[in-house]
Amino acid sequence: MKKQFAVIGLGRFGSSVCKELFKLGHEVLAIDISEDKVNDITNYVTHAAITNATDEKALNTLGIRNFDQVVVAIGDDIQSSILCTLLLKEMGVKKIWVKAQNYYHHRVLEKIGADRIVHPEQDMGIRIAQHIASEKIIDYIELSEDHSIVELIATEKVADQTLAQLDVRAKFGCTILGIKRGEDVNISPLPDDLILKSDVLIVIGHKNDLKRFEDEGM
Fold first, then answer.
1. CA distance 76 to 8
2. Is this structure's pTM higher than 0.85?
3. What is the CATH number of domain 123-217?
4. Domain 4-118: CATH superfamily, name plus number
5. N or C: which end of the chain has fewer CB within 10 A?
6. How far apart are CA 53 and CA 32, in angstroms?
7. Three-class SS of residue 187?
């Protein structure tokens, strides 16, 4: 389903979000105060505008309240990030995701009602650390302070067994959401689906349970 997104701030993070959303077939409005950054992104989005995102009249002119979601990716200017987010909330934007620079920025964004606060560098650092710390982990996504999704390579220990035989949920409290085999992905696998060596298991659960499954089950 095609959606309308606006991305405010066209640094490396904001530009990447724009390009990927556009590639996925959505309508994307890219906004930045820098003419050069707007010109660089023009061919990768639906619309681009040179606009001060802390100017309420300018945002109204762009019809920002009509977008399904707005991503505030303003870089080092924390004050502008906060003011822009506050304006978007007051204008009734449905969903606002904001890039935070640090803990204090995050706290303020929480208080003014940002729907989701992201820390791209921190999140990527966690994923890389998890990947290099274990040969079994292919990818790692932190869902909350306690729960995550990991991609684990199936070893000989679990190979040639069905999900029912492994009984991961009962033994470890985790759930296998999918099985990746080459280019194919089996979403919501059945109990009698067989796991082969080198399959990638997509597993969700509490971090402690996931670690136990990685250490003892794999």
1. 13
2. no
3. 3.30.70.1450
4. NAD(P)-binding Rossmann-like Domain (3.40.50.720)
5. N
6. 7
7. strand
Q: How many CB atoms lie within 10 A of CB 33?
A: 19
Give the pLDDT of the chain (218 residues) as one tens digit per residue: 789 999 999 998 999 999 999 999 999 999 999 999 999 999 999 999 999 999 999 999 999 999 999 999 997 889 999 999 999 999 999 999 999 988 889 999 999 999 999 888 777 666 556 655 556 656 667 777 788 888 888 888 888 999 999 999 889 998 888 888 888 888 888 899 999 988 988 888 888 888 888 888 77
Question: How many angstroms separate the CA atoms of 54 and 157, rounded?
Answer: 56
Q: How many residues does the chain have?
A: 218
Residue 78 to residue 154: CA distance in whole angstroms: 44
Closest residue by Cα to residue 93 from 74, 72, 68? 68
Backbone angles phi, psi at 161, to 5 degrees: -120, 150
Domain boundaries, the chain: 4-118, 123-217
